[in-house]
Amino acid sequence: MRADVFLVDAGLATTRSQAQRLIGAGVEWRLFDSAPWTKVVKNGDDIPTGAEVRLLDDAEARYVSRGGLKLEGALKQAGVAVSGRQCLDVGQSTGGFTHCLLGQGASLVVGVDVGHDQVHALVRDDPRVVCLEGINARALTPEVLTHAWEAAWSDVVEEDDDDREPEAPYAWMRNGGVVEDDYDDSDDVKDEDVDNFESDRAAQAEARAAEGPRLQRRPEFEGRPVSPTFELIVGDLSFISLTLVLPALVPLLARGGDLLLLVKPQFELQPAQVGKGGIVRDPALYAVVEQRLRDACAALGLQVRAWFDSPIAGGDGNREFFIHATLS
Length: 328
Description:
Elements: H1 3-9, H2 16-25, E1 27-30, E2 38-39, E3 52-55, H3 67-78, E4 86-90, H4 96-103, E5 108-113, H5 121-124, E6 129-133, H6 142-152, E7 154-157, H7 191-211, E8 214-217, E9 230-235, H8 242-249, E10 253-263, H9 284-299, E11 303-309, E12 321-326
Parallel strand pairs: 4-5, 4-9, 5-6, 9-10
Antiparallel strand pairs: 1-2, 1-3, 7-8, 10-12, 11-12
Helix pairs in contact: 1-2, 3-4
């Protein structure tokens, strides 16, 4: 079996791309205890079924994506504590940042992403994780987040159709349709009463539709608070400038809280400033990006504590940075 496929099937890597990075860092295999170890040289090298495999450097395998390694290094460099804190992961994607936060003792991680069905099961199934999908980070508000969070912890209560009928629409119908000569129709409902009844029922249905579905908390989440205030916000966003997202994040950040965001310069510059293949080739532009983000933070009342290179290089060849800011 191909080495990269073998590592994924064996649960040593979550994706083939991660497996290939592990192979680059060093992978060996053997068929029995006394056999010599054989080094995997290429991704397509064959590893026999049933072979024992060891990773010479398992850093890539610690998290469901290499984003976890980026955040791990950034937290250390910025001196940001995670243990016991409620965190928000913006641009959750497969969950590398969330995985790192969990490993460092986060009490709860709410992940937001515009996409769907991307979060790795290992992260999604953790009881400390809330995955909110289909939400544009730029449109985040405490109200939007609260509603989505509540929906994630609840089931929709099916509403019964309103099949009521007006009382005694036609009294004579109670007599099997037989109308006596002396039948008194004074108790029969009038046509306008039927019209009013139908109009009232339609108005109630319209009001229920406007309110949205009625939610009921699932038992395992009963009593747990939904609070859209976070002591730590992290993020790894693509195809949007952080200057457009920061205004939505500040109302969600607790006083004294930390903001630690991955900066991808290619998304902070104008198209003419970015080279072929989306690579920023002029190093002077990095200072432009830094100043632009520092100015955006200052305008929102954030204090920039640090700006530094990402501990792990971007996979596309671009240089990446982290910005650390606080709200006092």
